[in-house]
Amino acid sequence: MSIQSVAIIGLGLLGGSIGLAVQDRASDITTTGYDADADVRGKAAERGLVGTVCTSVSDAVAEADLVILCVPVGAMGSAAAEIAGHLKPGAIISDVGSSKQSVLEDLSAALPGLTVIPAHPVAGTEQSGPEAGFATLFENRWCILTPPDGADEASVEALADFWRTLGSKIEIMDAEHHDLVLAVTSHIPHLIAYTIVGTASDLEDVTRSEVIKYSAGGFRDFTRIAASDPTMWRDVFLQNRSAVLEMLGRFTEDLTALQRAIRSGDGETLHELFSRTRAIRRGIIEEGQDDPSPDFGRGH
Ligand SMILES: NC(=O)C1=CN([C@@H]2O[C@H](COP(=O)(O)OP(=O)(O)OC[C@H]3O[C@@H](n4cnc5c(N)ncnc54)[C@H](O)[C@@H]3O)[C@@H](O)[C@H]2O)C=CC1
Ligand SMILES: O=C(O)C(=O)Cc1ccc(O)cc1
């Protein structure tokens, strides 16, 4: 099937970037959009994030071959319930949520018998809202599709093609595996950033000026991640609870082992780990998986 019209529900960073990317790279595809927040709809119209910003969700999805839910993962179920009954027959319903198992369950429950194919573009920044989107966000980035067992193959291929058109590379895996992998590569790193910045801020009464003055290097990088959207990340941790808790358990054990090495003066253990992690970083850069530009995530 060929996708000729796309409806984007939620016009923040991800929804806005999809709208701009489609208009840039596939101008034959019609774009409509809707956001629950009237201010966001106004800003989306001003920026031209989609061809038509609709004032009702039913108008936005009525003619769409593909509907992409771009709302926080905790809002996917209610957003899906709102589009049920207004969809074009045969439409593909997808999303961009950062966790996949709960989204697959929520969408399948709200849209029984329809073509639900969840997806996760592994591309983003710490920014959010309708001003944050940009057309090149998905270029050379992975988009992971997590179709349920028995999903219509032609629809999976049509969705994969859509993301390739936006510049993404495609991977297909099951939702449970996705959630475990992303817990360690994305969700726990965000939790660590929120924690360390919170810990430093709790010290601020004593050393307020020093936290700002010496926030070069490592701490500064953590503050970028810790500036990420609170609603989005609250939802990720609540929706991907079991995978996050599993990985957090492993992380805590490893942290405790390092604590012991430091206490006992075991430099060999520290040096061995730091050498291993340095090699991982160098491998990522050699594979071209590093941030696409030095400004990535800062200038948008
Ligand atoms: N921010 C990032 O870097 C990335 C985010 N994601 C995922 O993309 C999704 C969207 O994230 P962002 O675009 O960053 O968030 P955002 O906060 O920029 O935009 C979300 C928009 O959804 C709207 N919304 C909420 N509930 C709604 C509903 N029921 N109906 C219509 N609109 C509704 C909000 O008003 C808001 O404008 C999340 O599920 C997130 O996990 C995926 C990859 C990267
Ligand atoms: O800004 C960053 O470094 C990110 O990690 C962006 C991001 C956030 C959430 C995702 O599901 C995917 C990418």
Automatic annotation (TrEMBL):
UniProt xrefs under PROSITE patterns: PDH_ADH
Similarity comment: Belongs to the prephenate/arogenate dehydrogenase family.
Top-rank lineage group of the source organism: Bacteria
A family per Pfam: PDH_N
Gene3D superfamilies assigned to the protein according to its UniProt record, in alphabetical order: 6-phosphogluconate dehydrogenase C-terminal like domain, NAD(P)-binding Rossmann-like Domain
SUPFAM superfamilies for this protein: 6-phosphogluconate dehydrogenase C-terminal domain-like, NAD(P)-binding Rossmann-fold domains
Protein name: prephenate dehydrogenase
Reaction(s) the record says it catalyses: prephenate + NAD(+) = 3-(4-hydroxyphenyl)pyruvate + CO2 + NADH
GO MF term set: NAD+ binding; prephenate dehydrogenase (NAD+) activity; prephenate dehydrogenase (NADP+) activity
UniProt source species: Altererythrobacter rubellus
Protein EC: 1.3.1.12
Keywords: Amino-acid biosynthesis, Aromatic amino acid biosynthesis, NAD, Oxidoreductase, Tyrosine biosynthesis
Domain Prephenate/arogenate dehydrogenase, residue spans: 4-292
Record-linked PANTHER family: PREPHENATE DEHYDROGENASE, PREPHENATE DEHYDROGENASE [NADP(+)]
Pathway as given in its UniProt record: Amino-acid biosynthesis; L-tyrosine biosynthesis; (4-hydroxyphenyl)pyruvate from prephenate (NAD(+) route): step 1/1
GO biological process, one term: tyrosine biosynthetic process
EC class (word): oxidoreductase
Spans traversing the lipid bilayer: none
